[in-house]
Design brief:
Layout lengths: L11 H79 L3 H12 L18
Length: about 120
Amino acid sequence: MKKPNIVQLNNDFIKDANQKKRFEEEEIRKRHRFIGLVLIVITLLFILPTYNLVSSYVALENRKQQIIELQKEFNTLEEETNQKKELANRLKDTDYVEKYARAKYSYKFEGEVILQTPELLPK
C-alpha cells in the first residue's frame, strides 16, 4: 500500500481554523440539544390537554348514556303512575270496585260459583 503524500501543516492559521471548526461543531450540537428539548416540551404541552380532552369526552359519553337510561326509567315510572292513577279513578266507582274485588280476590256472594278466565282478570 502506498502512503498518502499529504502533509498537514501545523501553523497558527491551521490551528485557528481547526479551533474555529470545533467551536462551530459544538455550537451546532448545543443548538440541536436545545431544539430537541424544545420539541420534547412542546410534545408534553400537547399531550396533557389531549389527555384532558379525551377524559372529558369519555365522561360526557358516560353522562349521555346515563341520561338515556334515566329517561327510560322515567318513562317506565310515568307509565306505571298513569296506570295507578287510572285505577284509582276507576276505584271511585262502586260498580267497578265490586267487579274488581270479585275478579281479583275471588269475592263472591253465598251460593255463587266463580269461573275465572285469566285474560279477563284486571291487572
